[in-house]
Amino acid sequence: MAAEAVVTFAAEGILEKVLSLAEKEFSLAWGFKAELRKLKESFTTIELLLNDVAYKPQAPPIEEWVKKLKGVAHDAEDVLDEFKYEVDRRKVEIQNHMNKKVLNFFSLSNPLAFRLQMAHKIQKINASLVDLERKATPLGLVSKNNDATPQEIRWDRQTHSLIGKDEKTVGREDNVSNIVKTLTDSKTNNQEDLAVMAIVGMGGLGKTTLAKSVYNQDSIHKFFEKRIWVCVSNTFDVTLILRRMLESLILTKAPSKDNQDAILKKLQEELKGKRYLLILDDVWNEDLEKWDNLMECLSKLNSAGESKIIITTRSDKVASIPKKLLPRHELGELSVDECWSIMKDRAFPVSSAPEFEISAPAFEAIGKEIAKNCGGVPLIAKVRTIIMYHSMQLAPFYFYFFHTF
After folding, report:
1. Model pLDDT for residues 111-143, shown as the tens digit of each residue
2. Is residue 314 located within the same domain as residue 376?
3. Is pTM beyond 0.70 here?
4. What is the per-residue pLDDT across 158-188, written as a single tens digit (0 to 9) for each?
5. Pair (63, 195) in one structural domain
6. Is 234 part of a structural domain of the chain?
7. How many CB atoms lie within 10 A of CB 265?
């Protein structure tokens, strides 16, 4: 039991570090996104297995399993500390070069060797964790969680419907046009049942940005008398979703004492005789019963008919659950030129100083080489730009490098 407690503490510390690194987006800039995501998922699973260890007799095989996990946990902690140290060290190194006003690209340490070394270490730890997960089953260990199912352990996030000045729907113009046409087409509006459209794709492809763009189109404003935006994220609680819908309409907090029935009645008053568009952003729930409960409630709010729902999700299963489905939109990867466009617009907006000649052939060639490594994912393109330009303050480095080599 004592060994289990020690490892639980170690595992929680490592999970916290993985989350911290992911939040700071170091993983995207350094090419460790997949490895760190897998590391996080593995430790999350291990934590659930440890909950079961607490209820098992401390037989020698289980004690040996815990001992091995403890060793892997310490190795992972060392690697993550080393990774964070290197990130901080390189930021200081670059800043020192800038302060000396002598910026020689070839004098900066090359992170390639370090990157390969770190990737190998993280992959080795992931392999060890997978092996421990495999060995847990014969020992009779199962995932246990006192508060949530494993599927619900994700980063909580909140989104909104406003489009920021740096949020452009690059490479998704056809998607916007097709979605708007489907939502407002008379052929899809001769029905009383609520119709649901899913925007599906892996994280970072711009599902939320696409939904925002559709939500704010003039033709959507004109067709739907009410528009409602709700970020669902981790918690698929029907009463909470209805409460957020009401708050979106009345622009103030709904009384906390109101139960589901009271909230529904107020929503019926707000939406009586009106077409509405509801965006349910970042949906993860795959529980059919919860979906049926939500759709039953929403159907009571469709008095005018022709109302629509858009859900954004990473899950194909989620996208297939609603019964009345409009054609789904599956987002693919962007082209290199589109990723480069995102990076160029964010790093060097029109208002930038004139010395940054973004049309220079050398600049564009190097920029596109960087864009190739974004994997067609808009979020990676954005984050790499932030890391290079904002966080590390490399504008002088850009100027020197692109105009010298």
Report:
1. 556 666 777 788 788 888 888 888 877 777 765
2. no
3. no
4. 677 776 656 677 889 999 999 999 998 876 6
5. no
6. yes
7. 12
